[in-house]
Specification:
29% of the residues lie in helices and 25% in strands. The protein has 273 residues and is α/β, with parallel strands linked by helices. Helix 7 runs parallel beside helix 8.
Length: 273
Amino acid sequence: MATIIPTEISINPDLRFAVNNLFAEPPIFVDATAPEALDKVLQDPLALAVLSLHQIPLQRSETIAVGALVGRTPTAYTLIIHPEYLQKKAVFRLEKEVTVLTDSLLASRQLQHYRPDVKVRQSEAPLSDLHQQLSDGSCAALLLSAYRLEQNPDSWQQFVRLQLHPREFVPEPGLGVPAVLVQANNTLYRKHFLPLHDAAVAELTNVERKVLQLIPQAEQGSTGVYCSKDEAGNYHVWAVTAQEVCRYVQVSSSTTFGLAERVAEALLASETT
C-alpha cells in the first residue's frame, strides 16, 4: 500500500488528482516531520512525500529524487495578531514588548531586527497548539509562513493577519514550493509527476538554493533568499544573513548565469562592513 506524506503543506488540486490517479487503491496519508518523511521515502519504494522545498537538505541521499516542483504557494511570512495586542500605528501593528511565537530562526531574527522590543520564541508545536496559544492570549501573535496557514485558512478569521512582503522579510530558499519526493529508481512515479513540474519555479529556486550552497554552512540556517522574474525577463534577488545583526542585499541581472555567485559575494561582503 502506498504511503503519501504531506508534511505540513497543503496538497494542491492538481497534485491530489495526480496522486489519486497513480494508485489502484486509495493511498494512506500520514503526517510526519521532514526528516521522518525523507527516511520513509528512503526505506519504502512505494512511498512518496510532499515537502516544501526549503525543508529538503541541500545534501541528500542519491536514492531520493525530486519528481516535480508543483508551482509556488504564497512565499511570504504572515503575522497573525490577537486583536487585543493590535497597535495600528506601530511597526507590524504590534504593541510594545509583546510575545510572538514562530517556527523559524530566520523569521525570529528578522522580526527582532525591525522590532527589538518584541520577545520572540521559537516553537515546534503543531499548528493546532499554536492556534490555541494565540486564542487564549499566551502570546500576542504568531509569525508563520503563508504556506502553513493554507492548511486551514478559515480558522484564522478572528485574528488580524499581516502578510510580510518577501522582498523586505526574506524567506528561506524554496519556501512554499511543493516538492514531490520519490525513490530515484522509481521511474513510474517520476514519469507520472513530471507533467506537473514547473520549470519556471525551478529556475528561480535553483538560484535561491545555490546561494545557500555558496555561503558557510554555519550561516545557512539563518540565511534567506528570494528570487523573482519580472515581465521584461530580468531576475531580482533579495537576500539576508541574520547573524548578530541582519544584513540585507539586493542583486538584479538579465540572466541567471553567475547570479547566485554575485548574491553570495554581496552577502559575505556585507558581513565585513
